[in-house]
Cell shape-determining protein MreB (Aquimarina algicola), 345 residues
Amino acid sequence: MGFFDFLNEKIAVDLGTSNTLITYKGKIAINNPSIIALNQITGKVIAVGKEAGMMRGKINRNIKTVSPFSNGVISNFDAAEKMLKTFIKKLSPISAKAFSSSYNMIISIPCGSTEVEIRAVRESAKRLNAKNVFLIYEPIAAAIGGGLDIMQPKGNMIVDIGGGTTEIAVISMGRIIKGQSVKIAGNIFNDDIRQYIRMSHNLHIGEAMAEKVKIQVGSAIDNLESPPENINIEGRDLLTGKPKQTFLSYKEIGRSLDKSISQIENAIMDTLSEIPPEISADIYNTGIYLTGGGSMLRGLDIRLSKFTELPVHLGDQPLQTVIKGSDIVLKKLDIYKDTLVKDRN
Ligand SMILES: Nc1ncnc2c1ncn2[C@@H]1O[C@H](COP(=O)(O)OP(=O)(O)OP(=O)(O)O)[C@@H](O)[C@H]1O
């Protein structure tokens, strides 16, 4: 590849609380945890993504690992920008050198982003030398990535359960009619599991163990058709301080998630109750499109369908729908320009 191949390139970025995905030349080129390892003293980048993730929790006085997001929004802009810059440099050896201001970049943002946050994301992207920076709300990108025809005068409801936020939006003609971003998502599910195991089994488990428990046996209902086997959970006994293990069933873990899932259900109902009746009628037929990593929780589609009395469609590859949608928009700006967040400057 030569220098000029990088000119007029298109880069789509999904900066998520848990994962960062970047497409380059229409393919997913970066798919990594959103973590950066920095030198404590100099602030220099030591590693990003998976490599940085492996350093997390390991004791080294000179290295600190940072997750630039909390609850779906960028909480550490300096770290987020450094992480993104390092990822972009990895896209191609030439790009690292060229880094010319000749590429178009689209970044997806939560629908609850404030004007200040939106401006900060635009400015960060500009500092990374992007020629044109486009922003798109995550549920719109998810809908397009999931193959929904959102440009029609017809209502569609999207529920995108990520790591930090659940984005709930009703979309029609490419615009969000009603949307909200609730801070109950995958990370809170992990906290629920940790707290439950602590309270009811006197067992202190780490973040990674909670994530493993959620993925292996997490469930939104207690009558799964094909239940997973009980899981062996290891941690520290709070009473004796000794390492301890215990076996738990999916039903027990499911109970710990009940309250958070109810909060998501209530947020969906709030959104549904605030839309015009014509759009309600559409959604009665189209149902809810469920996506994001958190949508993979067993039985969640069944539970939400029962609660809302609406059909719930689970997309495939839910971790990739937002980035796929953003990539499509960037390639077909003529069709999708109205779906972009307006630049008020
Ligand atoms: N099989 C699974 N079952 C349940 N949850 C899962 C599964 N696989 C991944 N997850 C969860 O999905 C979440 C990450 O999803 P995703 O990548 O869509 O979020 P994100 O875009 O990083 O976050 P946000 O949109 O909040 O910024 C994590 O909390 C992860 O634990």
